[in-house]
Amino acid sequence: MTHTLHRVGDYENLKDDYVFLMMPSQDINHENSAPKLKRFFEMALEKGAIKIGDCRSGNEYYQGGLQEVVNNVEDRAVIHAVFTERDKVIDMLEALKEEDLGMSVVLTGIVDRVNDCLKEVDIQRHTVEHSLGIWGDKDKLPPKEILEIATMCGHAMVSVNLIRKMIKDIKDEKRTAREAAEELFKPCMCGIFNVDRAEKLLDKLVS
Length: 207
What we know:
The protein is an alpha+beta fold. It is built from ten helices and five strands.
């Protein structure tokens, strides 16, 4: 999975940005996978995920609440949970190891920090994937500080113009940075947009 991979930023503003993804394998174990996927969501919320989402059914705003995201998960779903604290990531890894749900799990983050978390719970990673950055005519891209926010939605559902509007709203004192971050989360159906990181980035942009 690569839609969580290309988050633009530096070490400091990415070090507390972790995304879990879990999914069944088509025609191997997708049948009757919904209860296991639901259990993943329950564990993620118990262990301190700040956001969850479902590629098939959408995020909490689209579905009408967190509990609806949990209850409506279906077989074949690709689901996510966003964490911002290392200790809670380790707790989630321990829970997944103990439950052994039999699904593919991807943990996105800075490689050395993810590796440290895996070592804490004695999990050997299967694969590592690296982003090679942006190729092509980069002169047409928005500034890096905008990309740091926009690329938190790997399907590009959080538009640059919406980010610019939120920055203006904060400057005009129509919204707080937190309110703006929540508004930017709404179009990210997969639920991988990190609102805590977005709030910090927005605060920095308007300071």
